[in-house]
Amino acid sequence: MTTIEIAGEKDAAMLSELAAKTFTESHGHSAPQADISHYINEQYNVDLLRQELKKPENIYHILYYNDEAAGYSKILMNAPYEGSPFNNIAKLERIYLLKKYYNLNLGKALFEFNIMLMKTQHQSGAWLYVWKDNQRAIGFYRKQGFVITGSYDFNISATHSNPNHRLLLVF
């Protein structure tokens, strides 16, 4: 059984573990281990996530599969990128699924849930960044109708960044 629940402060520790594991699975080979560890310690620590979960603009959801946390997402409403054609556009800042749950359509379920939420909040579209070497994710987003509209260097550490595409989906 699959459920998607909004995350709250009480979920910070579990979300920290889930975020670290999913990031490592999807990006762990993209940079030296020291840089990956630095990023995880900076971005996915419990205290930082607890603070983020307190802010209403950070909308986190956790996807459960058979009562086990399988993935999560973070969206920001009304978060245009520089040069965006819309002000009321959502940023899909994070959407991750544990590798053992790939090929069960759980990522698609979480994605569709977020898109539905964005539409109910009167967003004109969604945008995100995706690592240029993540062909699986790029293929998925293109199937959903996203187009590449720009690029961005995603900083893993002070000494390493990964080239990303900016993708846009207009509703």
Brief digest:
By secondary structure, the chain is α+β, with helices and mostly antiparallel strands.
**From N to C, what is the helix and strand string?**
EHHHEEEHEHEE
| Intertermini distance | 29 Å
The biggest sheet amounts to: 7 strands, mixed
Q: Helical residue percent?
A: 25-40%
As laid out across the biggest beta sheet, the strand order is 1-2-3-4-5-7-6
**According to CATH, what is the class?**
Alpha Beta
Q: What structural class do the secondary elements suggest?
A: alpha+beta
Could you please say which CATH topology applies here? Aminopeptidase
- The fourth-level CATH homologous superfamily is Gcn5-related N-acetyltransferase (GNAT)
Could you tell me the radius of gyration in angstroms? Answer: 15 Å
- The overall average pLDDT, rounded, is 96
Defining key terms:
5 helices, Aminopeptidase, alpha+beta, 171 residues
Structure in words:
It is built from five helices and seven strands, in the order βαααβββαβαββ. The protein has 171 residues and is α+β, with helices and mostly antiparallel strands. The chain has one domain (2-123): Aminopeptidase (3-Layer(aba) Sandwich), CATH 3.40.630. The chain has a seven-stranded mixed beta sheet, with helices on both faces. Helix 1 packs across helix 3 (46-54).
What is the topology?
Elements: E1 2-6, H1 12-27, H2 33-43, H3 46-54, E2 59-65, E3 68-76, E4 90-97, H4 106-120, E5 125-131, H5 135-143, E6 147-155, E7 161-170
Parallel strand pairs: 4-5
Antiparallel strand pairs: 1-2, 2-3, 3-4, 5-7, 6-7
Helix pairs in contact: 1-3
